[in-house]
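Researcher: Sequence recovery benchmark, item below. Answer with residues only.
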């Protein structure tokens, strides 16, 4: 029987995961397909019931559902339970089990680019599931200080407090996307953009860039994007115009997907076939984003 996998979130029209996973299944000769499941957050409980009824073998979970979906699953793997966010669901018999490969994906991507995080001062922009993974990844690899920046400082503080309750601690500060941001950025040698503000069609990305205040960053800072569509986001373009080193979001996407593929199939991921599929997919125009977003 053909195994059915997919990506679940809101929106998902921009997702490159279908192209990447189809290439992976073909490379390993697996009878499997991969689809997009666009689900409004308020209907997430219904969607999870649908996964059960339809016998879907696994899904990737994207914004804004990574934290919310944990309440509707039968169990969480240690990484997902510790982080409080899930980016992959796997069917194990009659159970749906949540996991997290985002931390692994970001760590592997940064290592692939030769970035040593030890003692670096870093800024993570965002307060959702990807930001959680970014903070955990940076602390795990020895960042000297991490500052979480969000539009509302109380959201950044809530994220840091929740991670601390889960045992993810370290030298972490918080700041608002506004007057406090420059103090955080002046000493930073790494910035991770971990919001959906730069996703193609998501809103006024230029206004978001202006609010970031990238001019405050050191001249040797590295700017890392977690959004991959467009590949050159407004944040990366602005950073490059300052002569800063930039890293796009494809690496994190690729490496979290490789870990997911191994979890789902029990086989090593065909990394180069997946990378090539991503590169080809990036050259094609995106599907229209859901009009309600």
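Model:
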């Amino acid at each position: 029987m053909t195994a059915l996998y997919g990506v679940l979130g809101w929106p998902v029209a921009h997702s490159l995961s279908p192209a990447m996973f189809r290439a992976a299944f073909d490379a390993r000769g697996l009878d499997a397909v991969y689809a997009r499941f666009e689900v409004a957050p308020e209907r997430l409980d219904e969607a999870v019931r649908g996964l059960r009824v339809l016998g879907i073998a696994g899904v990737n979970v994207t914004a804004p559902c990574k934290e919310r979906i944990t309440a509707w699953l039968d169990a969480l793997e240690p990484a997902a339970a510790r982080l409080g966010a899930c980016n992959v669901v796997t069917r194990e018999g009659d159970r749906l089990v949540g996991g997290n490969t985002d931390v692994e994906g970001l760590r592997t991507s940064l290592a692939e680019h030769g970035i040593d995080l030890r003692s670096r001062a870093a800024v993570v922009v965002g307060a959702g599931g990807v930001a959680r993974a970014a903070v955990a990844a940076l602390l795990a690899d020895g960042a000297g200080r991490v500052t979480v920046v969000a539009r509302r400082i109380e959201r950044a503080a809530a994220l840091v407090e929740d991670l601390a309750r889960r045992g993810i601690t370290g030298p972490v500060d918080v700041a608002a996307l506004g007057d406090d941001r420059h103090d955080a950025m002046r000493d930073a040698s790494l910035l991770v953009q971990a919001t959906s503000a730069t996703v193609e069609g998501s809103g006024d990305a230029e206004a978001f860039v202006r609010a970031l205040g990238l001019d405050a960053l050191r001249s040797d800072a590295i700017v890392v994007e977690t959004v991959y569509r467009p590949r050159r986001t407004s944040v990366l373009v602005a950073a490059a115009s300052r002569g800063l080193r930039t890293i796009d979001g494809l690496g994190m996407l690729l490496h979290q997907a490789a870990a997911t593929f191994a979890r789902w199939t029990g086989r090593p991921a065909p990394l180069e076939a997946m990378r090539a599929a991503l590169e080809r997919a990036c050259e094609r125009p995106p599907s229209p984003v859901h009009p309600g977003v």
